[in-house]
Amino acid sequence: MSTERLRYEEARSVWHANIGPILTPQMQAVLAELDDIVETNRQDGDKVKGAAVLTAYPGLGKTTLAVAYGAEFHRRQADLYGARTPGGDERIPVAYIGLTSNTTIRSLNSMLCRFYGHPGAERGNATQLGNRAADCVLSCLTKLVIVDDVHFLDMNRRDGREVANHFKWLSNQFPVTFLFVGVGLRERGLLTEGLTAGDSAMAQTARRWTTLSLAPFEIQTDEGRRTWRRLLLAIERDLVLADTRPGDAGRRPRRLPLRPHNRALRLPHDSHRSRLPACNPIRDRAPHRRGVRRCPQ
Questions:
Q1: What number of other Cβ atoms are within 10 A of residue 108's Cβ?
Q2: Model confidence band, residue 200 (pLDDT cutoffs 50, 70, 90)
Q3: Residue range 78-106: average pLDDT?
Q4: How far apart are CA 274 and CA 106, in angstroms?
Q5: What long-range pairs does 150-154 form, CB within 8 A, spacing at least 24?
Q6: How confident is the model at residue 231 (pLDDT cuts 50, 70, 90)?
Q7: What are phi and psi of 162, to 5 degrees?
Q8: How do strand 51-55 and strand 177-182 relate by DSSP bridges?
Q9: Cβ pair 282, 227 in contact under 8 A
Q10: I need a labelling partner for 21 at 20 to 30 A (CA). Which of 28, 64, 130, 210 fits?
């Protein structure tokens, strides 16, 4: 097998592994609510801004949906305002961090600095790291911060309560919208700030944060069966196999639709992977027009 053929197969495997996500009606409803929350959070820094909490059972695509929304929001901001800020810094509209089981205020601020590539991400105390993170957010004009695996915070521990209160302070001070993603966040006491049932009514978090839930896709219902059938028909209609392969003599090979996008989320596992255009086969197949992306042929 030729080297060109091996490269072709490798590119094809990577492209097919990153073809999603396919948006179900449940996901589309969550995305619509996220858009409303982000678009209404345009207040100045001295005004209280709401946050979004995406909580659901494991395995339903919470992180996938949050990353997909963040990538799309990044592309919209980059197309609208450009890749550079007026001050000449790189525009990073979306920041992404994932919590661990031993997250503290210092480690949280350090993760934010590390995301932006700040050289002082590992040095200094919590206050110094927080100031550096704030400088990065303001310099790069970040508008959305996605915090994943929030369920790792233990509200029965002092560190967990301090980090939860720190989130509340950050959402008030930073001109950004926070999107928290986790499993059973209400049951774990995040929204009630770890207070008892009698004192939970005094918690500000539950009043300021909007809770979104991702329901499972039910194929047993009539709507679920219709959606699943439209998906299969769309895949069957849009799936096109190349009639030539790299190395075929006398014929120009048809290239796979691999094209890099703006770096939306600098995740450790895909920092060098090309991003593919998001496509949703469930949508009606309207003619191509501005603002509507078709699946790559």
A1: 23
A2: very low
A3: 92
A4: 32
A5: 150/53, 150/99, 150/180, 150/181, 150/182, 150/185, 150/190, 151/182, 151/183, 151/184, 151/185, 151/188, 151/190, 152/99, 152/100, 152/101, 152/103, 152/182, 153/99, 153/103, 153/188, 153/190, 154/101
A6: confident
A7: -65, -40
A8: parallel
A9: yes
A10: 210
- Which alpha helices (DSSP H) does 88-125 contain, by range? 105-115
* SS3 (DSSP) at 142: coil
Residue 214's pLDDT band (cuts 50, 70, 90): confident
Residue corresponding to tokens 């929030």: 150
- Tell me how far apart the alpha carbons of residues 134 and 113 are, in angstroms, rounded to a whole number: 9
Omega of the bond leading into 21 within 30 degrees of 0 (cis): yes
Beta bridge partners of 210: 52
- The label of the residue with tokens 């890099």 reads 260
Distance, CA of 17 to CA of 100 (rounded, Å):
27
Beta-carbon contacts of residue 110 (< 8 Å; ≥ 6 apart): 121, 122, 129
Question: Strand ranges (DSSP E) for the chain?
Answer: 51-55, 94-98, 144-148, 177-182, 209-213
Determine the residue type at 95: A
Spatial distance between the Cα atoms of 115 and 243, rounded to a whole number of angstroms: 43
